[in-house]
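Predicting holo structure, adenosine-5'-triphosphate bound.
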Amino acid sequence: MSGLFISIEGTDGSGKTTQIRLLEEYFKNKGFYVVCTREPGGNMISEKIRELIIDKENTEMTAVTEALLYAAARAQHVTSDILPVLEDGGIVISDRFLDSSLVYQGFARGLGIKTVKDMNKYAVNGLEPDMTFFLRLKPEDGIKRKKNQKELDRMESENEKFHQMVYGGYMQLARRNKQRIKVIDALKSVEDIHKEIIENIEKLFSEKGI
Ligand SMILES: Nc1ncnc2c1ncn2[C@@H]1O[C@H](COP(=O)(O)OP(=O)(O)OP(=O)(O)O)[C@@H](O)[C@H]1O
Ligand SMILES: [Mg+2]
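Done. Tokens:
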């Protein structure tokens, strides 16, 4: 496979969408074929699963159901949206990927990282991002940013302890995957964060001889 797969991770409101837009622009200006997508979602089937997951009426959803729904959405996403672009030599930027499940369901919901990894084995089929950016922002700062934007969905309106667990989970995952996961201070300005992301991308390009 000759393409490049990048994922952006972080707590709610940490600036993922903002940075994805800028990164997409950067790649387009360089003449690359780039596709931006998101999890859960990216295609009609996975977007329908997303609706189920974030619906505030689904208060009785168990952690296992939630984890399996994310994995199901991911299975479709990988096959219909990500792999075809990579096979064509394109760049995929995904707003969240497997790390989100490991952190939200494995860590914060308490299912365990290994259990959630196992649940996702068939979904990812060995696919891993070439590089992941974790936009590190304390959950309380992210929620503050988001509250100005829109009403919070089922996941976003989880209690503070849950969001703190997510944050801690990301930190742990980043420590265990230093090579792949780049931790970026999301309190910095939009422009400074973009610059830091580009620096890492350029390093990756020179390593890969692109
Ligand atoms: N570095 C930054 N400094 C200050 N504000 C920012 C920064 N980056 C993004 N924002 C603002 O914070 C809000 C959330 O940003 P954004 O939607 O990009 O985050 P997100 O991680 O995609 O959130 P979501 O969890 O909704 O997907 C927006 O109003 C955005 O303009
Ligand atoms: Mg977003």
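Residues 16-17, 95 surround magnesium ion (ligand 2) (CB under 6 Å).
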